Amino acid sequence: MTPEIRSVVRGAWAPIAQTLAVLALAVGTAHAEPPRFVERPGITEFSGRMIVRPLQTEALMRLVDDRADAEAIRARAAARLAPQLIERVPETDEHIVRVPRGEGENAYADRLLATGDYEYAHPDWRCFPLQTIPNDGGYWQQWHHLRLSSSLAWDVTTGDPGVVIAIVDGGVQLDHPDLAGALVPGYNAPSRTPQAEGGGVDDVDGHGTFVAGLAGAIGDNNTHVVGMGWNFSVMPVRYYDSPGGGFLSDLLNGARWAVDHGARVVNVSQTGVDSLSVQTTGAYITTQGGLLLYAAGNDARDLSWFDWPDVIVVGATDVNDAKADFSAYGVAIDVFAPGVDMLSTGREGGLAQGSGTSAATPVASGIAGLLFSVSPSASPAQIEQRLLAGCVDLGEPGDDPYWGRGRVDAYASVTACRVDLSPPVGVLDFLDVLVFLASFEQCAGDADLAAPYGVCDFGDVIAFLTEYGSGCP
Fold this sequence. Notes:
The chain has helices spanning 14-27, 57-60, 67-81, 105-114, 143-147, 150-156, 207-216, 248-260, 276-287, 357-374, 380-389, 410-415, 430-442, 458-470; strands at 44-45, 49-54, 85-89, 94-98, 118-123, 126-127, 135-136, 164-169, 187-188, 193-194, 233-238, 246-247, 263-268, 291-295, 312-317, 335-338, 342-345, 351-354. It is α/β, with parallel strands linked by helices. The strands form four sheets. An eight-stranded mixed β-sheet has the order 10-9-11-8-13-14-15-16, with helices on both faces. It has a four-stranded antiparallel β-sheet with strand order 3-4-2-5. Helix 8 runs parallel beside helix 9 and helix 10 (357-374) crosses helix 11.
């Protein structure tokens, strides 16, 4: 069973719960039993609220006779939640509800799921920033740019102002000299208020400013540091209004608002990645033309009970390309990025140094922004494929259950063209078609362009034609 789909399989709609458990395996392959809901102080804490998603009509139509029956089930599910309802999220059909008095999160989830009317029910966790508290001041070399061949990537692109990277965090310092010129209007999620209408987005604890600088600090301006892209637009989205984190539901609301208002890349350097609602919002962001990148966590956990298809989960490496000792790892991880002793923008217009998957995630987000800059018409799936294709393999060949695809590389990603298989490299021509066909016939590795990797099938043909037609750089 995947996380947070912990149905007690009984009752009138038990077959539905069983079927959803099977369907959920297509969303995230389970390699271990997910834990019960357990608070981890300072990481994810109970809030007295839950995020609940009723069964979706498409799933119900496979199990009931007609749409009227399906809608009746959904109406029953909504009515059961109504007394505790705080907010319904129309974009993802989720309900934010209070835990009934005298009933804990686990018991309430079990009671709801036992009815067979719900896809999932999990705590609306109180989430926290992941990166360790930075030490302001001083100048430290940004070692990660050398490791990622950033200067070579900048020969191709330094980022386009039309590419917006949203930082869903505790705000960004609005007058920081290395960020102010890149900022675009943002959003305050707790109050559901855009910055243009008075919503506060200024930094409350320094974390968001640190994260924003790693992705998009302005370059070539004789000021402090440089982000993965020099010229991105950076959108501050504040999901908590005082130090100490905030509700997962506010975080996800801010992520959805960002993509609805122009963000191509949404960066979340916070806890809570293993909640199924993160995948639901990731899927929504993808349909809107964006990518959601989420930090894996700093608790060294093996995240092998889920694997979100619509979220790029990022772990952290050190200067030696070893896994940072604090970084989570496992099946859920898609890529790793530098995240130890990272220098970035700090509060009060200065510098800060820190470590964490919070630092690694904006580095990967910045590379995704470079890819959108090079290919603005590319789909999120194409951008993700190019990000993964450029990774330095650090474990078993291909996508392995410890390292994912490996450590990101800026230059390899922005210059990679998965269909450019034949010299002259960098020129897409008919020779590439011939090489692809020969490779496909032999089931060679360079023909294997689409998941499942290691299996050459018609999906590879479609991937080849799509990439070839998109004008991969």
